[in-house]
Every structure is written in C-alpha cells, then in structure tokens.
Amino acid sequence: MGDLNISGGNQGPINTGSGTQDNRNMTIGVAGSPAAEDALTRLERLLDEHAPRLEEGDEARADLDDVRDQARKEKPDERRLADTLKRLSERVAAVGALAVAVKEVAAKLGVRLP
Question: Virtual CA dihedral for 84, 65, 68, 64, nearest 10 degrees?
C-alpha cells in the first residue's frame, strides 16, 4: 500500500536540536499484518452484532469477506480494496461503532477513506 499513517501525540517534554531523539510509535498500514487482522476480526464481530440493523447487512458481510481476501494476498489489488472499503463504509454508516471499525481497518491496510 502506498500510504504511510503516523499517529500519536506529544506528551511531556519535547527535545529539539542536534543530538535529540524522537521516540514515538509509528503504525504503517500493511496487508496481512497482525494489526490489520485484529481490526478485521473486531469489525467482523461488530458486523455480526449489528447486521440486522442495516439495510444491506448481507452485502456488508460480502464486502468484508472481499476486504479480508484482499488483505491476505501478498499483493492485494489496491483499487479493489479501496473501492470495497468505501462501499462497506457507506453500508455501515448508520451504526457508529461499525463506521469507526471500518475506518480503523482502512487505516491498518493503508487505505485512505473520505
């Protein structure tokens, strides 16, 4: 995936200047990573719980299956992955926890959602 996602915050003193060291955590979206797999598992659990509330619950599950298949490939189809995540995001938008979980999966896979 082409995107690099860096997140975190500044806590405590911040050193600047020559010879200082910045020790912040960095997360890089990588398909097949344990972080991506954990996010997919969480999304699947939430979707199982909330699918009956969605107009397109079955379609959302199919999208999730497609995302998981792409994420497990050595070289995922980035366009297909991005399109499927966007569509999945739209299908679950009515349930806040699902919408957040889809964004987390996208971030872990290095896909930017609108």
Answer: 50
CA distance to 16, 60, 95, 112, per residue, from 100 (Å) = 35, 15, 9, 13
Separation CA 51–CA 104 (nearest Å): 18
Distance CA 107, CA 4 (A): 9
pTM for this predicted structure:
0.72
Is 2 strand, coil or helix?
Answer: coil
Place of tokens 């987390």: 104
- 3 touches 106 (CB < 8 A): no
pLDDT at 47: 97
